[in-house]
Design goal:
single chain, alpha/beta, Single alpha-helices involved in coiled-coils or other helix-helix interfaces, 21 helices, 10 strands, about 10% strand, binds 6-phosphogluconic acid
Length: about 475
Amino acid sequence: MVLVQNGGGVMASKIGLIGLGTMGAALAQNIADKGFEVAVFNRTTKVTYDFAGSVGDLAEKITPTESLEGFVAALQKPRAIILMVPAGDAVDTMIASLIPLLGDDDLIIDAGNANFRETRRRSAEIEPTGVKFMGIGVSGGEEGARFGPSIMGGGPKEAWDRVSHILEAISAKFQGIPCATWMGSDGAGHFVKTVHNGIEYADMQMIAEVYGIMRDGMGMPAAEIGAVFDRWNEGPLKSYLIEISGKVANATDPLTGKPVLDIILDRAGQKGTGRWTLIEAQHLAAPATAIEAAVAARNFSSRLEERLSGEAIFGAAPSAVPKSADLIDKLEQALLVGKIACYAQGFGLLAAASEEFGWSLPMPAIAEVWREGCIIRSAMLDDMAQALGAHPGTNLMFAPKFAAQMKANHGGLRHVVALAATAGTPTPALSAALSYFDMMRTGRSTANMLQAQRDYFGRHTFQRVDRDGAFNGPWADVEHG
Ligand code: 6PG
């Protein structure tokens, strides 16, 4: 390891990485581990030194630098630089500092959780400088970043092609296939990552709701619930989120000896990606109601004092439900159906965005890239990839394999939602998933009533079921008898 200042005479690095927080440090080690020389820089030099001192044998491949100039000089041309700085202003500040030091065809890759609209803006702003810009979504938390994340690329295809061998090498592998794919131009990669996070929120929330029925309805202790999750992880629900739900439910708090779950305050944090998903869903008129419900559930969770006031007035909501193996099976069915509905919403949103932003998003490849490495990885995603490939443009729930699962299991979800409603256990995401399914299989909806109301008060006109044209109703006759 040689400390480079202003390009002081060491072998140039293949790629650079700025930002040695948890994710950046893990990613830099992953890159070095795969045999690529990587130059690193952090705003606080001590962080750079501490990192360089902590990487053991990987130090041979890692070049720590003290200044941005030294960092840039340490890179092979055309340069490729990964930014792992906090999303938002820090990205703009870093880009502004880098641009004067870079030349034509050098490449900046924002690998943070950026809002895709910011990525689109940055792409447009940077383009005239000759420097290339990519936004890539990286999922998998610290462990993923270190040993194999799922990578969703966006930006110029030529730029992706230049660095794809590195990104593929560091990515997770599903049966040997890299989970790193180019999704489209400008903000496409960050958009796909945002929808990934929206699905992540909904998946997590539905698991939490089922946990609530077991804890509050059936009175099951955490370890018993953990055993149920462990068992489910052997079946069709097999996924990272079910796996870790089992692990957290089985964990004991060293301070009190109680289950860890029982000592964690019920107030959930959020950094905004779930909210962005539903904001974009509204812009695109794409129903993403399970994701919306999941984001709202986090918002409800933060209103702890208000909830306690409500409980004092109305009494604690959940009442007991009979504990039975049959109900546990129905909870499993409910999660399965809820999950399919939620992915149908996510892929519907991706399809709407693809059209709006001219991306041609590769739907089957998106499901493929989520099969390993990312937080929502699950056994089901391989089937989804095949269904999306075989039935392009179709709602995922309608693809034969998933239609069969919906038919076989929606009764379980219906039973669970009805039971929860009667018991007073909130199940906002599961209920939203059920409503989505029911709305999507209702050929004759009640929107005729909405059209009549609109026409009544605003003469907005309506279409008829029996003839073409735009019509007004006989409201004057109604009004005047
Ligand atoms: C991932 C995660 C990761 C992170 C998010 C969600 O794919 O690795 O989604 O990006 O966990 O920031 O965090 P919040 O729950 O705080 O919004």
